[in-house]
Amino acid sequence: MELKATALTKRFKRLVLFRELSLTVRPGMSVAVVGPNGSGKSTLLQIMAGLQWPTKGTVRFSVKGREVAREEQLLQVGFVAPYINLYADFTARENLSFLAKARRLPDAPVRIDALLDRVGLAGRGNDPLRTFSSWTSPSPTSMIPAAGWCGRSWPSRQRQAVRWCWQRMLLPRRPGVPTGSL
To answer: The domain at 2-76 falls in which architecture?
Structure first.
């Protein structure tokens, strides 16, 4: 996938966060967005992910040389911030279903079940998040393979486990890889 931002400007009333910003990101490239609080980092990333509109400029995505239509971009690009807010009165399954419906993700119920099972919460999928502990003792059955956590055991925070599932829901499925796999 290639992302090309051209002459992006974002303004909130009189405040200009950035002006005439252009950037091309190709496969294999890494980009760091740095700056002080309030400088527009999250806003820029949301614009690039198609979740916000720039005041001026364009963002284009292409996959294998073919431009992706704006309405298809949400199926190709995701934005996961460290401040994901889950709904405490929703169950784990409802939180994940909400995301899946908003993103039109295929096979959502199967993916949700596999992810909840993966983090040791299969039996808690229908419990409201407000009943989840913030900290429980680690379980040997809740180990995640090295790819996601560099070989460390899964964090024992149950709400954090649901956030991890939320993030995994946004990743495209790879052919031949079972649902819920890394």
So the answer is: 3-Layer(aba) Sandwich (3.40)
